[in-house]
Amino acid sequence: MADIPARPPQRTRFIDILDGSIRAGRRIGLLSRPRLEKQALLDAAMEATGLDDFGDRWFERPMEVLLDAVRDEARLNAAGEFASEKQFHHILRDRLYAQEWFKRHPEILERAIARPVVIVGPMRSGTTRLHRLLASDRRFSHMRSFETISPVPRPEFEQVLAGEKEDFRPVLARRIMKVARLANPRTLSIHPTGPFEPEEELGLLVASMWSMKHDAQWHVPSYARWCEQQDAEPAYRYLADLLRLVGWSQQVSSIRPWILKTPQHMMDLPALLKVFPDARLIFTHRDPQAVVGSAASLAWNQTIIYSDDVDPGRIGREWLGKTETMIARMRAAIDAIPADRMIDVQYDEMDRDWRGTMERIYGFLDLDIEPAVPGMEDFLERSRALKRHPHQYSLAQFGLTQEEVTERFRDYVETYGIPTEDDVGHVAKKRRRLS
């Protein structure tokens, strides 16, 4: 990695221009400063929709903690404040619409979510690749990117189902992705996507003001530490209800198992298993040096959009600690999971032999892989087209050293037999849990 710059990349001029325009609009009275206060945001959503039922009000406490952290710690620029207000409004409006759908069609909440396949791994450990390979199999159900952004259909969606209107959500997703490319084109190189690409269910947790999406885009450490002390079960119960709504809106059979994945599950396995007690779990593992460096790079490239005061060393420390916490919590939870309900997959194995690795996974799922292979091959071809530029990063950009990361994760690497850069091509020796 000698050709990687010593410091992480900076944001594009687009954000500086947008930020300056918003500040100018405020000075001349065309724009007002967003009110990032809970009641003001709730009131605005109710006024916009004419509705007042947000469902389970559990979300209000994490919302309060998050808003406090955004105001006190995130140091948002004008563009960041503008974007955060829009994000909160979008989430709250969708909660109001969701309750209306549940009242209009109570059968939605009766839909089964049987034996979901849940991919669990740290950020940047190959979960997206595995998720999209499995999602290419039509025997499974999966979220699409536009549904993660907008999981709740608009009130006129029944006209969409009748073929009388176009679903606006993919249109909105395209617009958001276009702005994201202008704001920082690297984010879509790090995580290539499109409106209809398979995507994780992170937006369904964000709907409860929960998940590490927030601390991957804003510097909100007090919110992150608070979440680590809470029981996430209410957020996962609401996720399940939204998943039922997404399945209903897709008009697919509830018999088809869902493919789920988001790194947040590393933090919340007990809650996930209470809500999905028959889930089958695929754990992904990758060299912690790559995981920490890549996660810090992803967080950096998002945070610099919203704030002018971002320190790469601070981000490096935050994601080193968060990765350590994720792995510790995963390891503390797995002893309660029956061995026949989980399987381990190495990032390097998938790189080296994706077909052989997927055959092992399909054996675990007790499914014939052959009907899925054409879809998988098509995905791999499309993914090469989506990812035009490699994701470049280094630990040094974020004030970290290989020695420090190696020492912090030594036991994890040895226990799970994770190949590392230090192995120089041979697999680490200890394989206690790999089948």
Automatic annotation (TrEMBL):
A GO MF label: transferase activity
Organism superkingdom: Bacteria
Gene3D superfamilies linked: P-loop containing nucleotide triphosphate hydrolases
Record keyword Protein biosynthesis present: no
Alphabetically ordered keywords of this record: Transferase
Signal peptide boundaries: none
PANTHER family in the record: OMEGA-HYDROXY-BETA-DIHYDROMENAQUINONE-9 SULFOTRANSFERASE STF3, PAPS-DEPENDENT SULFOTRANSFERASE STF3
Name the record gives this protein: Sulfotransferase
Organism name: Altererythrobacter epoxidivorans
